[in-house]
């Protein structure tokens, strides 16, 4: 194409002005507007009037400047209009070519996008990813002719691997209840830090709830333990009370049984003692020498024996058994005839003070072996006696 040549002959223009004379005149006029010239009570009013005069002078100068510029630029304005017409002719042809080029580039990018999309779909299918990563990882630069196929393939592969790694990490950090929410939050903009922050917050809330649950459970367990202990103490107290009552009842039964047994033994001892004493007295009575009126009997005392005096009463117990009764009579002795066989005999006796039954003061001999037993027997019965 031949080179375009524009011929333009420029004649420099000149503007004749009276700037120097105007400058001197203006300098003299502006001196009257110095601040030192404004005095008195109406100084502000005078300043406002002076400012208005200066503004009018400035506006007149600006208007003159605009008129001179338009007159001076009239040749350039005609040249500019002619040049713009030529530019429009060139741009029309350029736009035609540019449209065709853009159409070709668009088709080329569409073909490239199809290739990239196909590769992406195959890659995510192979990785087992159901989430659509395309809108998150797509880069418009991949469609440029300057971007190589290796570049966009590597970018897609790295994005898929990063997604898989981050999802696995979220699965390790989050619990079953929070994983889905964390995954959805991550897939919004693939910001891993936001998802981790969410998991951390949820864990803190769960731990706080767990601590509260443990605290409440511990309180309930303590209350239950206290109730069990109280019930146990009550049962133990009842058991101890029952045991004490039972022990007291058993002890009472044992005491009653022992007392009954003692009474039985005592009755047996009384009867044995009575029989023994009766036999002894019978032997003594049989051994007594008979003495007539005014003489006392002499009792035969075996070797090692003692003579005991007591009041004898031939009484009968409820079972029909004879029971001895003894007492001490302090008074004068008298002769009491006693029938022995067919011959009347006499022996020394004492008259009892209170005679509710037939009683007499008896003298009998007890062997030393039985002396303590007989004394204990007489003492338990409240029978007075003395040992010779």
Task: Describe the secondary-structure layout.
Layout: H1 19-30, H2 43-72, H3 74-127, H4 134-137, H5 149-173, H6 176-189, H7 192-287, E1 305-313, E2 315-316, E3 322-323, E4 333-340, E5 343-350, E6 359-367, H8 368-380, E7 386-387
Antiparallel strand pairs: 1-6, 1-7, 2-3, 4-5
How would you describe what is shown here?
This protein has about 400 residues and is mainly alpha-helical. It folds into three domains: about 70-175, no CATH class; about 175-260; about 295-385, no CATH class. Helix content is about 65%, strand content about 10%. It contains eight helices and seven strands, in the order αααααααββββββαβ. It has helices at about 20-30, 45-70, 75-125, 135, 150-175, 175-190, 190-285, 370-380; strands at about 305-315, 315, 320-325, 335-340, 345-350, 360-365, 385. It has a three-stranded antiparallel sheet with strand order 6-1-7. A two-stranded antiparallel sheet has the order 2-3. α5 (about 150-175) packs antiparallel against α6 and α6 (about 175-190) packs antiparallel against α7. The protein starts with 18 loop residues before the first helix and ends with a strand. Residues about 290-360 have low confidence and may be disordered.
Describe what is shown at a glance.
The protein is mainly alpha-helical. 64% of the residues lie in helices and 10% in strands. The protein is built from eight helices and seven strands, in the order H-H-H-H-H-H-H-E-E-E-E-E-E-H-E.
Content of β-strand = 5-15%
Q: How many domains make up the coordinates?
A: 3
User: pLDDT average, as an integer?
Assistant: 77
Rounded to the nearest angstrom, the radius of gyration is: 76 Å
The helix tally amounts to 8
Poorly predicted runs are 290-360
Biggest beta sheet summary: 3 strands, antiparallel
Order of helical and strand elements: HHHHHHHEEEEEEHE
End-to-end distance:
184 Å
**Residues in helices, as a percent range:** 55-70%
């Amino acid at each position: 194409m031949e080179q375009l040549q524009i011929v333009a002959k420029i004649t420099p223009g000149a503007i004749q002005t009276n700037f120097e004379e105007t400058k001197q005149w203006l300098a003299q006029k502006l001196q009257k507007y110095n601040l030192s010239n404004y005095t008195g009570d109406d100084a502000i009013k005078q300043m406002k009037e002076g400012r208005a005069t200066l503004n009018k002078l400035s506006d007149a100068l600006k208007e003159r400047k605009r008129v001179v510029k338009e007159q001076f630029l009239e040749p350039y304005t005609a040249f500019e209009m002619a040049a713009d017409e030529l530019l429009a002719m060139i741009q029309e042809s350029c736009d035609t070519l540019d449209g065709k080029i853009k159409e070709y580039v668009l088709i080329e990018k569409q073909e490239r996008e199809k290739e990239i999309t196909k590769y992406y779909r195959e890659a995510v299918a192979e990785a087992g990813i159901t989430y659509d990563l395309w809108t998150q990882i797509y880069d418009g630069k991949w469609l440029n002719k300057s971007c190589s196929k290796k570049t966009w393939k590597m970018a897609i592969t790295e994005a898929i691997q990063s997604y898989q790694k981050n999802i696995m990490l979220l699965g390790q950090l989050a619990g079953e209840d929070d994983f889905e929410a964390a995954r959805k939050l991550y897939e919004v903009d693939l910001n891993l830090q936001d998802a981790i922050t969410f998991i951390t917050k949820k864990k803190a809330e769960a731990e706080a709830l767990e601590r509260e649950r443990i605290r409440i459970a511990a309180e309930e367990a303590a209350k239950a333990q206290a109730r069990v202990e109280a019930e146990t103490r009550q049962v133990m107290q009842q058991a101890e009370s029952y045991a004490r009552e039972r022990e007291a009842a058993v002890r009472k039964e044992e005491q009653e049984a022992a007392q009954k047994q003692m009474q039985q033994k005592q009755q047996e001892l009384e009867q044995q003692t009575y029989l023994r004493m009766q036999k002894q007295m019978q032997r003594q009575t049989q051994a007594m020498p008979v003495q007539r009126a005014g003489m006392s009997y002499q009792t035969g005392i075996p070797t090692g024996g003692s003579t005991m005096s007591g009041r004898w009463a031939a009484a009968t117990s409820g079972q029909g058994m004879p029971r001895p009764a003894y007492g001490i009579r302090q008074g004068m002795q008298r002769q009491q005839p006693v029938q022995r066989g067919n011959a009347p005999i006499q022996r020394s006796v004492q008259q009892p003070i209170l005679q509710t039954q037939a009683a007499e003061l008896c003298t009998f001999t007890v062997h030393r072996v039985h002396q303590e037993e007989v004394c204990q027997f007489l003492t338990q019965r409240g029978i007075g006696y003395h040992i010779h």
